[in-house]
């Protein structure tokens, strides 16, 4: 099982590459969706890491994949600009998937 990074900046990609994780840099919605489609179609990729800004570029598509795919696991990681409200993101996913407001 491999990990793959979809990042909005080169610095994060270089850092992950030094750790042995391959990836790509995206800046727009269409690029992000195309990168995700390539990653989820590769049976060797078990975890897709996405910087928060890259995931935000295709928020609806990323949320849909998180709710419907068993593999690969899609995880958002903070980028060099810090972290956003992860608890709010988790609450939103729970609410969308089972209809329960926390």
What does this 3D model show about the protein?
By secondary structure, the protein is α/β, with parallel strands linked by helices. A four-stranded parallel beta sheet has the order 2-1-3-4, sandwiched between helices. The protein has a single domain, classed as 3-Layer(aba) Sandwich (Rossmann fold), CATH 3.40.50.10580. The chain has helices at residues 10-18, 29-41, 52-57, 59-68, 86-98, and strands spanning 2-7, 22-25, 45-51, 73-77. It is built from five helices and four strands.
Summarize this, please?
It is built from five helices and four strands; from the N terminus they run βαβαβααβα. The protein is globular.
CATH architecture: 3-Layer(aba) Sandwich
The CATH first-level class comes to Alpha Beta
Q: How far from one another are the termini?
A: 34 Å
Integer tally of domains: 1
Q: The CATH topology is what? A: Rossmann fold
Rg calculated over all Cα atoms = 13 Å
Strand portion = 15-25%
Q: Helical content, roughly?
A: 40-55%
Strand order of the largest sheet: 2-1-3-4
Low-confidence parts: none
Biggest β-sheet strands, sense, barrel: 4 strands, parallel
* Name of the CATH homologous superfamily: ATPase, V1 complex, subunit F
SSE series: EHEHEHHEH
- Mean pLDDT across residues: 84
Going by helix content, strand content and strand pairing, the class is: alpha/beta
